[in-house]
């Protein structure tokens, strides 16, 4: 692999890894805030315990998100200095504002909340975790706006004297139609990821400690609602994408020729090549509907787009890697739908109804309790949404190729000029090693924290560390 | 406008190095001053509520550099590729060691976290010091604003210079001094006593180093800082811990500001040809970007300073190392 491929690989590795923890933090901060407010309103001990329990998971996950997020901010300069120079005007302010506005809020108020239980008035203390939750949402929005610029560049003009992109309107940058569509989609995915973790821990622990039943159900509801948001907004995002990046959606279906009432393949066998038609199970008209909102709509094919782009941008290939786009798109949707099904089934099976239900087969009757297979494969709950999020990002980023920012600059123009393979191999090895160790430590700690009783024994000290004497 | 943003940039870097400087110092000193497990716990507890907020100043500083001076950001990061990656990896290890330590009560887990915290804090301080040293010296910038040369020697070479070595040494001393005066201010009992002793000894050593840097570079700020640090060491001895910490913080702030303003309007000196140096004007972002971050900065940063100061106020009490029986 050459420097470009290695640098791309490194960017993918550190970004995908970072994004395993971020959605969980976003969701857990909102869930912790929810439990905390519920406790304040109802004064039920249960909610206090759930707040503290979720808070510990949040701190541990947030820490990994923070330290890996720091890398992201440096990456544009490290491996992509040409990109940083060219887009500094657009990207720099966005990152700076995210840091000043959202990151400070999150870091400072999370510490105030976590350490402030006996230092702050009750209501003020509850407000701190709400601020954290809002901060994570702000962070996510601003970063998605920066990414949306690369999907659909707006609010810039090219300065002919320096050859750099110059920002013309921040408002326009923040209201890019792509970010408006991508934000709910991404947040729905975040709810599924965090909800999945809570549900898994809840199910795993309910056997030993029935107090965890609520956690499992809250997690499952979060997943289900998040899933619904993801699906609805995903449909909208698909239409926006078809309008701004038709090549991406054509690649998602491996649709070579422009078609009206284009079908959507649920599954395909064979090479997704141009010449050899592949066998697939198709739903007629669905791709047209996803892309245009009408089952009879026209969807542009890869060949026509390639011709059009060659005429517009000059010779070269404008076709992304079709199999990657095709399969990541399906894996994203499949994993997401499966995750929703698992959550829904768990809710149904633990639904305690007093009403008579019609005679149903045992596995369809409500209130049967968590099924055995789900208890055994409990890791499905967090793993499926994590997989869906990851495939979604791989699809979004690779199906934009060869563009770095769509229509303005290509990936090979962004890499740092003096960088060598040796340097990238060295740093990639470092990231792989340290990130691997972080993952092991995070997993061990989550398992350890999950093993602790939800209702602390009265004599046990809450914080194992020494408390201040005053 | 460009001058204003240069000032903001220096301010964010100064705040970063002062604030995170003391928690780096606490990290380095934790195994030295904390002889017992519960003492180390108390030492780490002194920075528990603050370190993350401090580290965000790095996010702000890098963000401001990228936003206001993209060419500088691009040149610096890609030139010092491997040192920067090393700093990031060590920061990752350190942040996780700090956050994970108290979440598990097995002694081996805590020992490992303590070790990682001390080692990574020390490593980061040395690397940042070296980077600051290199900033003073300048880099082999070509006409395109990128550092010339290829391979590992390109990114590691600058760190082998005497300026980098001196910077690393000064940074370590500064962090230890900041950490020691901070711990003297924030703890009780034997930890406080030991912290005071460390502050006194490093105060003298730090003053001598700064004096050397001041004489070597002819920088008056460094000379002033040397005097301040020396006084701080004395103040720590006399239990004037607040004064001592303030004095050291001021000295570090002065030293960092000196590094950034060492070459006037040149922000990154080219060692090959002065014409290829990056100046404030040539590295600055476009007017709309500057206008935008000005609005954002004026609206947001005062609020940040207020709520961060409030969080320091909330957690102002000393942390006792004696375990309180439940």
Automatic annotation (TrEMBL), chain A:
Classification of source organism: Bacteria, Bacillati, Actinomycetota, Actinomycetes, Micromonosporales
EC identifiers of the protein: 1.10.3.-
Bilayer-spanning residue ranges: 20-41, 53-71, 91-115, 127-150, 178-203, 215-234, 324-348, 377-396, 424-443
Keyword Magnesium assigned: no
Signal peptide start and end residues: none
Subcellular localization: Cell membrane
Membrane topology, from the record: Multi-pass membrane protein
Gene Ontology biological process terms from the UniProt entry: aerobic electron transport chain
Listed GO CC annotations: cytochrome complex; plasma membrane
Pfam families named in the record: Cyt_bd_oxida_I
Main location: membrane
Name used for this protein in its record: Cytochrome d ubiquinol oxidase subunit I
GO molecular function: electron transfer activity; heme binding; metal ion binding; oxidoreductase activity, acting on diphenols and related substances as donors, oxygen as acceptor
Family affiliation: Belongs to the cytochrome ubiquinol oxidase subunit 1 family.
Protein keywords: Cell membrane, Electron transport, Heme, Iron, Membrane, Metal-binding, Oxidoreductase, Transmembrane, Transmembrane helix, Transport
Keyword hit for Membrane: yes
From TrEMBL, chain B:
Pfam families: Cyt_bd_oxida_II
Record InterPro entries: Cyt-d_oxidase_su2
EC number assigned by the record: 1.10.3.-
Keywords: Cell membrane, Electron transport, Heme, Iron, Membrane, Metal-binding, Oxidoreductase, Transmembrane, Transmembrane helix, Transport
Principal cellular location given in the protein's record: membrane
Lineage: superkingdom: Bacteria
Coiled coil start-end: none
Topology in membrane: Multi-pass membrane protein
Keyword Membrane recorded: yes
Annotated GO biological process: aerobic electron transport chain
Record has Transmembrane as a keyword: yes
Localization (cell): Cell membrane
Membrane spanning residue stretches: 6-34, 79-97, 117-143, 163-185, 244-268, 289-310
NCBIfam families linked to this entry: cydB
Similarity comment: family membership: Belongs to the cytochrome ubiquinol oxidase subunit 2 family.
Official protein name in the record: Cytochrome c oxidase assembly protein
């Amino acid at each position: 692999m050459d420097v470009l491929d290695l640098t791309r690989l490194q960017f993918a590795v550190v970004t995908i890894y970072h994004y395993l923890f971020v959605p969980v933090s976003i969701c857990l901060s909102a869930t912790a805030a929810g439990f905390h407010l519920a406790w304040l309103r109802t004064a039920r001990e249960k909610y206090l315990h759930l707040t503290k329990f979720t808070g510990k998971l949040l701190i541990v996950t947030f820490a990994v998100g923070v330290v890996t997020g720091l890398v992201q901010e440096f990456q544009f300069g490290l491996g992509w200095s040409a990109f940083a120079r060219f887009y500094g005007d657009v990207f720099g302010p966005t990152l700076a504002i995210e840091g000043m506005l959202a990151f400070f809020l999150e870091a400072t108020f999370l510490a105030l909340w976590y350490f402030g239980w006996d230092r702050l008035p009750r209501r003020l203390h509850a407000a701190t975790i709400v601020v954290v939750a809002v901060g994570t949402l702000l962070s996510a929005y601003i970063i998605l706006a920066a990414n949306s610029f690369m999907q659909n560049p707006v609010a810039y003009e090219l300065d002919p004297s320096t050859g750099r992109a110059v920002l013309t309107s921040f408002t326009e940058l923040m209201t890019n139609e792509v970010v408006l569509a991508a934000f709910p989609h991404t947040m729905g995915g975040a709810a599924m990821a965090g909800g999945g973790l809570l549900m898994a821990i809840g199910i795993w622990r309910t056997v030993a400690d029935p107090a965890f039943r609520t956690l499992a159900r809250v997690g499952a509801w979060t997943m289900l609602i998040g899933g619904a948001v993801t699906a609805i907004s995903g449909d909208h995002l698909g239409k926006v994408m078809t309008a701004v990046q038709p090549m991406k959606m054509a690649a998602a279906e491996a649709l070579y020729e422009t078609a009206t009432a284009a079908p959507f393949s649920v599954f395909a066998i064979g090479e997704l090549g141009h010449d050899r038609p592949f066998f697939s199970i198709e739903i007629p008209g669905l791709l047209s509907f996803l892309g245009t909102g009408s089952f009879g709509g026209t969807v542009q094919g890869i060949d026509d787009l390639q011709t059009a782009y060659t005429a517009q941008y000059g010779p070269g290939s404008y076709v992304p890697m079709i199999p990657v786009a095709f399969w990541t798109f399906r894996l994203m949707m499949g994993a997401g739908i499966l995750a929703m099904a698992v959550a829904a089934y768990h809710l149904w099976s633990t639904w305690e109804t007093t009403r008579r239900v019609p005679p149903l087969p045992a596995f369809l009757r409500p209130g049967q309790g968590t099924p055995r297979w789900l208890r055994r494969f409990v890791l499905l709950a967090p793993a499926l949404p994590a997989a869906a999020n990851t495939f979604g990002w791989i699809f979004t980023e690779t199906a934009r190729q060869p563009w770095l920012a769509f229509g303005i600059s290509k990936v090979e123009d962004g890499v740092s000029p003096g960088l060598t393979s040796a340097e990238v191999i060295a740093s990639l090895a470092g990231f792989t090693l340290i990130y691997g160790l972080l993952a092991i430590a995070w997993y061990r700690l989550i398992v350890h924290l999950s093993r602790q009783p939800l209702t602390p024994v009265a004599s046990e000290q809450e914080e194992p560390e020494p408390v201040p004497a005053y | 406008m460009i001058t204003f943003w240069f000032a903001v940039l220096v301010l964010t870097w100064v705040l970063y190095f002062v604030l995170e400087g003391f928690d780096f110092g606490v990290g380095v000193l934790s195994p030295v001053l904390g002889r017992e497990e519960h003492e180390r716990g108390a030492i780490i507890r002194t920075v528990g509520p603050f370190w993350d907020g401090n580290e965000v100043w790095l996010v702000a500083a890098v963000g401001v550099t990228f936003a206001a001076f993209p060419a500088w950001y691009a040149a610096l990061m890609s030139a010092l590729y491997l040192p920067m990656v090393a700093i990031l990896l060590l920061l990752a290890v350190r942040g996780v060691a700090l956050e994970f330590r108290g979440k598990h009560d097995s002694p081996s887990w805590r020992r490992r976290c303590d070790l990682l915290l001390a080692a990574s804090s020390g490593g980061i301080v040395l690397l940042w010091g070296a980077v600051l040293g290199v900033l003073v010296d300048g880099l082999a910038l070509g006409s395109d604003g990128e550092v010339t040369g290829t391979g590992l020697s390109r990114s590691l070479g600058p760190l082998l210079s005497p300026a980098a070595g001196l910077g690393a040494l000064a940074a370590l001393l500064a962090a230890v001094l900041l950490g020691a005066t901070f711990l003297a201010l924030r703890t009780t009992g034997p930890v406080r006593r030991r912290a005071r002793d460390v502050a006194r000894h490093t105060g003298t050593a730090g003053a001598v180093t700064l004096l050397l840097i001041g004489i070597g570079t002819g920088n008056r700020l460094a000379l002033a800082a040397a005097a301040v640090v020396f006084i701080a060491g004395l103040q720590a001895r006399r239990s004037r811990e607040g004064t001592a910490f303030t004095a050291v913080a001021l000295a570090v702030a002065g030293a960092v500001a000196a590094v950034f303003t060492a070459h006037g309007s040149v922000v990154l000196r080219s060692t090959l040809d002065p014409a290829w140096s990056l100046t404030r004007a040539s590295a600055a972002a476009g007017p709309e970007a500057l206008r935008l971050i000005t609005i954002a900065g004026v609206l947001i940063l005062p609020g940040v300073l207020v709520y961060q100061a409030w969080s320091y106020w909330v957690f102002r009490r000393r942390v006792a190392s004696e375990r309180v029986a439940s």
